[in-house]
Amino acid sequence: MHLKNGAKIAIIGGGPAGSFFAHFALMHAKRLGIKVSVTIFEKKCFDKKGAPGCNMSAGVLSESLLDKLTEQHIHLPPSCIQQEIEGYFLQVPEYGIPLHYPYPPHKTRIAAVFRGSGPRFANRDVSNSFDYFLLEHAQNVGADVVLHPIINIEIPKNPNDLIKLTYGEGASKGEYTADLVVGAFGVNSDTPLELNKLGFGYTPPKTVRTCIMDIYPTRTINDALYGNNIYVFSLGLKFIKFASFIPKGEFLTICLVGKKDMDKAQLNTFMNQPKIQKMIPEGWADPKKRCICFPNIPVNHARHPYTNRLVIIGDAGISRTYKNGIDSAFTTAQLAAKTAFERGVSEKDFEEGYFKPAERLLGRDNIYGGIILMANDIISRQKHVVSSHIKYMSEHPDTWETRWMNEVLWNTVTGNATYKDIFLKSIHPRLLLSLFSVTLRSIAKKSQTC
Ligand SMILES: Cc1cc2nc3c(=O)[nH]c(=O)nc-3n(C[C@H](O)[C@H](O)[C@H](O)COP(=O)(O)OP(=O)(O)OC[C@H]3O[C@@H](n4cnc5c(N)ncnc54)[C@H](O)[C@@H]3O)c2cc1C
Questions:
Q1: Is residue 378 predicted with pLDDT exceeding 90?
Q2: Which of 160, 164, 305, 447 stands 20 to 30 A from 396 (CA)?
Q3: How many angstroms does the Cα of residue 56 sit away from the middle of ligand 1?
């Protein structure tokens, strides 16, 4: 089952995964000298402010993603970048330390963006959404965009027949038959559940509800409080896996990921922590100047995200848990497009060419990620242990232990290395022994002062 001249490809969802797939599909078609038509169906307008235009995320573009975009000649315009990030700052209850790129003299390349056209309260049109830029890029390389939702999918019994999609509502309702359907619909709509009902074995990823709040401290306050740094908090709160502040020009994005579904009460509990109160501009609670959402994040990957003529990519398929989801969207789009053009579009082709490699690359690494996050949960609750290590790092910046820990922490917060590499680096016996003695010394000192 192969894509031939005149083949029609429908992509459900114009977020990063959908736009990247269009980019790669049109590139392969050009290389192979076949003409295909690629249509992206998207239900949001990314040039709108607030929820109607936003694919809710912290909006941090990792260095590896920025490098991949450059390799693909996808040049992010400066107007899309709200702030260039130079470093991270790790804050534990009593101490804080800056984290920096472990291999000088390389200069960090991390960008903070808005996925839509900025928070709903923004009084100017931010109008430089990352997702808008990517979708426009897909159009520039030849994709058509239909700003309507897909409301029905009919998979034929005979795999040689085409898949029928229904889109839009009322007068704008229409049908589209496709040689290949790409599901790039993420995990924040009912579409994954609709696909699950089609009975080809697709089970969407499990998710937890996170919390994102944009506020408006002004540029001057942002610069004074955070500079060009992302602040990451490990305050030992039971319900939080990790929390971060991302400065974006005059705005600040606060991102909370919990162990279970987050709600507004937990957001308020976090914001009212004494440490946070000292680090947050006054007026953050003004309901007219904040934009809050509770998006889902996948915590595992989908089962069987493919069948004949249909493949599911990005968050709705398989992604790296908790880190650099847009990078995973890029990788899965690239693998799926290569499979469709070089192998074919049958269930077997997608299993061998797309899913198995993606599982090896992302799924297996997520096992190490799970261990790291579990260990982090346990350690971060031992506030004294965490504080003694961070204190040691801030007081002894030039020791090998500090450099080693900086590398582990930097790669953990940025997602720059695989979870496997981070895991192996963090369990090195020499490091563990040294940290153990730091903890013992600090416990002994504490008991002397009591
Ligand atoms: C709290 C939080 C913070 C995050 N921070 C980061 C970060 O800093 N950096 C990073 O790289 N990743 C981050 N992520 C992950 C990132 O947001 C996702 O991995 C990424 O958006 C996945 O891209 P996608 O295209 O698969 O899905 P999405 O971005 O969700 O896009 C899916 C698109 O499909 C559309 N759609 C759905 N159903 C239909 C339909 N029936 N018809 C038409 N259109 C449809 C939706 O409107 C949407 O535009 C974060 C996620 C969360 C929850």
A1: no
A2: 447
A3: 7
